[in-house]
Design goal:
Elements lengths: L2 H4 L3 H6 L5 H16 L23 E8 L4 E3 L3 H11 L1 E3 L5 E3 L5 E4 L5 E3 L11 E6 H4 L3 H25 L4 E3 L10 H19 L26 H6 L4 H11 L7 E3 L6 H21 L3 H6 L4 E4 L20 H13 L11 H9 L2 E4 L5 H9 L6 E4 L14 E10 L2 E4 L14 E3 L6
Parallel strand pairs: 8-12, 9-10, 10-11, 11-12
Antiparallel strand pairs: 1-7, 1-13, 2-6, 3-4, 5-7, 5-15, 13-14
Helix pairs in contact: 4-6, 6-7, 6-14, 9-10, 10-12, 12-13
Length: 439
């Protein structure tokens, strides 16, 4: 992707508006040293040859960017980080004209979608970007580079782990309402990368489902969805009438999925919706009207029962909220709904398949561990909706990135210069990056 795809705030990046203050201080200091012609006059505690001739203001460094999520992290945000380097590496001259110096950088990076592994030793990290060049030209970008890599990689890895737990079932991406609108594009891109990586690793293709167009904007998709609880309220709690009018007016390409928990009686509302859709579907079926059949197919039901409620279809001893037991109960109710209809014999098979074809989506407080539990118990879930859990940044899911200066150039030679406890590392997946291609 190109920098324009990310709508980067280029001027603000160049000015250091998003930079931690010590990075803007660093640029200011190095620029001042360059103007006065300063040469290194410190103690030289690591005994570097030629140090006394070093023009610190012009110093060239090798920076390595890495994370320490264990056991692995799915890397995302590299393309945007490279776009930042392309757009905002350089300096303002004495007349406040911007001078690009990105062409003087040497950059190696992994591809978005790469995986890094970490064994707990900070001296054994897999770098994702390595930058060699004059430090003052890109110092103020460290904060924003690490920020986009940390966020995107955290979300991508969280999604990847949820996909593993779901065993190849679709995982719907619902975190938009829990964060800033500006984050939706990169978040949705991270989700999409996780699906691609999961396909690559398992051979299982999982269809992407995001809830907003912004989340799909960087990979050419579109948001999907049916109805919110608010729309059922507009129809005075009649979820069946809501779906009838939805089916009448919304394109048949949009799946008809009933949000079934509004009245806390999912079995009754699911069966009512099936019974209302069936006569219309049956008429289209008899007429071999494929468009009509598509319009009047109830593709699924979504269970989103609050964790503080127990659905009316369950016994008093049952677990509250969306539970495996509730899913089993709804599946049975869907499968057998047709048995109570007055059907001619020649439509019985079609009615049976019509009911059994309605899938079950669950949502509301789901995360990787909860998905794993439902799968272990064999709950007949067809897809999972996950929201704020994808934004989780706890001790286990932390995917923070670090940028270390590990080498400096002195008298034409690269000299190791990491902080104690770190060392220059590498990654066999690093590839040279031609920043000119990002124009």
């Amino acid at each position: 992707m190109k920098p324009v795809d990310f709508a980067l705030p280029v001027e603000a990046l160049r000015r250091g508006f998003f930079a931690d203050r010590y990075f803007t201080n660093s640029r200011q200091l190095l620029s001042a040293l360059e103007r006065e012609g300063y040469r290194y006059s410190g103690r030289n505690p690591r005994h570097v040859d030629g140090a006394s001739h070093l023009a610190v203001g012009e110093i060239e460094v090798e920076a390595q960017i890495f994370n320490r999520r264990s056991p692995l992290a799915l890397i995302a945000g590299v393309d945007q980080a490279l776009a930042q380097l392309r757009c905002a590496t350089g300096y303002y001259d004495e007349r406040e004209n911007w001078v690009d110096t990105w062409m003087d950088l040497e950059v190696d990076a992994v591809q978005d979608g790469a995986v890094t592994f970490y064994d707990g030793d900070p001296q054994h990290v897999l770098t994702v970007i390595e930058i060699r060049g004059r430090y003052r030209d890109f110092a103020v970008l460290e904060t924003s580079l690490l920020g986009v890599l940390s966020r995107a990689s955290r979300i991508a890895t969280n999604v990847y782990e949820a996909l593993q737990a779901a065993g190849g079932k679709p995982v719907l991406f619902f975190p938009a309402r829990f964060d800033l609108p500006e984050a939706q594009a990169i978040d949705g891109y991270a989700y999409w990368l996780a699906l691609r990586r999961y396909h690559r690793d398992t051979g299982i293709h999982v269809q992407p489902f995001v809830s907003t167009d912004a989340q799909a904007s960087l990979w050419g998709g579109a948001g999907v969805g049916t109805i919110p609880h608010a729309m059922i309220a507009c129809f005075l709690a009649d979820s069946t009438e809501t779906m009838i009018q939805f089916a009448r007016h919304i394109s048949a390409e949009t799946p008809r999925i009933l949000l079934a928990d509004f009245n806390n009686d999912v079995v009754a509302d699911c069966r009512a919706a099936l019974a209302a859709f069936w006569p219309r579907y049956a008429a289209a079926y008899r007429a071999s009207d494929s468009d009509g059949m598509a319009r009047w197919t109830l593709h699924g039901v979504r269970l989103d029962t609050s964790a503080t409620l127990r659905d009316r279809s369950l016994p008093a001893s049952a677990e509250m909220g969306v539970s495996p037991q509730l899913v089993f109960t709804v599946r049975e109710a869907l499968n057998t709904a047709w048995e109570s209809w007055d059907l001619p014999r020649d439509l019985e098979a079609a009615a049976r398949e019509f009911c059994r074809g309605a899938q079950i989506v669950v949502s509301g407080g789901f995360n990787r561990d909860r998905v794993a539990r439902f799968e272990q118990e064999g709950a007949p879930v067809d897809s999972y909706g996950i929201g704020s859990a994808f934004l989780s940044n706890d001790r286990r899911s932390n995917s923070d990135f670090t940028m270390d200066i590990v080498r400096v150039k002195v008298a034409g030679r690269w000299v190791d210069m990491p902080k104690v406890g770190r060392q220059p590392c590498d990654n066999p997946e690093l590839e040279p990056v031609d920043l000119s291609e990002l124009a």
